[in-house]
Specification:
A four-stranded mixed β-sheet has the order 1-2-3-4. Strands 7-8-9 form a three-stranded antiparallel β-sheet, with helices on one face. Strands 5-6 form a two-stranded antiparallel ribbon. The chain has helices at residues 14-25, 70-87, 89-99, 130-140, and strands spanning 2-7, 36-44, 47-56, 59-67, 110-113, 119-122, 144-148, 154-159, 165-168. It has 171 residues and is an alpha+beta fold.
């Protein structure tokens, strides 16, 4: 697995880099050699913050954790990723075999700032079923997810306040 370690407004020490590589090695059994992991370390409100994103065969796994130390935050982030994998084991097994090594869509996302402080994110969209879109939204821990259905229509699936899901389809 290819690992990228970034420090947001801080320097990342070699000991921390080695710790991250060692902990991510626990996840190697779940992912292909082409998988990419991006770890971003920062400090927010006096707490250590870890953002762990792993992209494998078109599927994105993401965890963001704040804790008192980077070590404990990273342990919790790895546990979250493992839980996501176990929770979606059947669906992920089918998906990885069906679309292995396809182009990865969220990785090529580009963020830019406008004069109104609106963050714009662009990414390519690929066709997927509603179930796959819901799974991807849950793995990213987002409230909504934009995707193309098999008929090539751009749709939005979202999490409702009552815990159910909603689907927006163009007319």
């Amino acid at each position: 697995m290819k690992i990228t370690i970034n420090g947001r407004q801080l320097s990342v020490y070699d000991e921390t880099k080695e710790l991250v590589k060692k902990k991510i090695a626990k996840l190697d059994k779940f992912f292909d050699a082409d998988a990419e992991a991006v770890v971003t370390l920062s400090v927010k409100h006096g707490e250590k913050n870890i953002e762990l994103t792993i992209v494998n065969a078109g599927t994105v796994f993401r965890a963001e954790v704040q804790d008192e130390t980077f070590r404990s935050a990273f342990d919790r982030a790895v546990t979250i990723i493992e839980r996501q994998i176990r929770k979606n084991k059947t669906r992920l097994g089918k998906r990885i075999h069906e679309v292995a090594f396809d182009d990865v869509f969220p990785e090529d996302a580009v963020e830019e700032e406008t004069e109104f402080n609106i963050r714009t994110k662009t990414f390519s969209i690929k066709p997927m079923s509603i179930e796959e879109a819901i799974m991807q939204m849950n793995l990213l821990d987002h409230q909504f997810f934009v995707f193309k259905n098999p008929e090539e229509e751009t749709c939005v699936v979202y999490r409702r306040k009552d815990g159910d899901y909603g689907l927006i389809v163009p007319q």
